[in-house]
Amino acid sequence: GLSPITDVFTDSDPAFVQLVALLQMCGKRLGEMNEWQIQVREHSITTAAADDGKYDLPEDFNYMIDQTGWERANNAPVYGPLSAQDWTYLLGRDLGGSTIFVSFRQDQNQFWVHPNDPVIDALDINFEYISKYWAADSLWTYNDVSSATYKDKVTAPTDIVLYPETLITRYLKLAFRQAKGFKTAADLDDFKEVFSSRAGKDVSAPILNT
Q1: How far apart are CA 200 and CA 205, in angstroms?
Q2: Count of alpha carbons within 13 angstroms of residue 81, beta-carbon side
Q3: Nearest 5 degrees, angle CA 115-CA 121-CA 122?
Q4: Which of 32, 108, 156, 162 has the highest CB neighbour number within 10 Å of its CB?
């Protein structure tokens, strides 16, 4: 029942103010529901012997994709993430340099490596992670993803939501009708159907060997 307008970000209509706020929430929540390929990023760390073994994670880091950590200089997997118990055990027993190659722990929003006293020099650690950025400016296209500025919220009419259009619009409609106190059973079913379809088709499936 709302008439289209040119710029929802400058309009004072309470409905559009609410829609903008709900869109930010929907964008963030969708990033937690699935490993969308459009949000997959790679991060690399090169160590030095003088380091303390604690490395900042990328600004857009949401969560690491399991079992993607590799040390490419020696073609070896990076063991982890270590639990607090594993970490203190290794520190207490000083086994890192003699029994394992390199392990990691996520703590204090950082990537901690072991051995770290000293750090092994010139390690080439790489892993994939899911970015918290779900939108981009108008420079983004399917054929050119490197020129765009990515962001974790939309702020202008020219911004582009990276999720499939059918998915984000269904989710926003559901959230808006829930916020208004309307009946939403049909909207929820519609969103679930679209989510299941798009999540299943986001990446190709392997051939099953029976």
Answers
A1: 8
A2: 13
A3: 120
A4: 162
pLDDT grade for 117, boundaries at 50, 70 and 90 = confident
Tokens of residue 31, six digits: 């990033």
Say if residues 71 and 125 touch (Cβ distance below 8 Å): yes
pLDDT band of 94, cuts 50, 70, 90: low
Exposure pattern of 162-178 as b/e (b: 16+ CB <10 Å)?
A: bbbeebbbbbbbbbbee
Distances 85 to 91, 156, 162, 207 between C-alpha atoms, Å: 10, 47, 39, 39
Q: Tell me the CA distances in angstroms from 83 to 13, 34, 80, 165, one per residue in order.
A: 49, 24, 8, 39
pTM assigned to the model: 0.88
Helices (H) and strands (E) in the chain, counts: 5, 11
Residue 53 token pair? 């073994």
164 vs 48: CA distance, rounded Å: 42
pLDDT at 86: 87
pLDDT in tens, 127-173: 999 999 999 999 999 888 889 999 999 999 999 999 999 999 999 99
Q: Write out the DSSP string of 27-95.
A: HHHHHHHS--GGGEEEEEEE--TTS-SEEEPPTTEEEEPTT--EETTTTEEPB-PPPHHHHHHHHHHT-
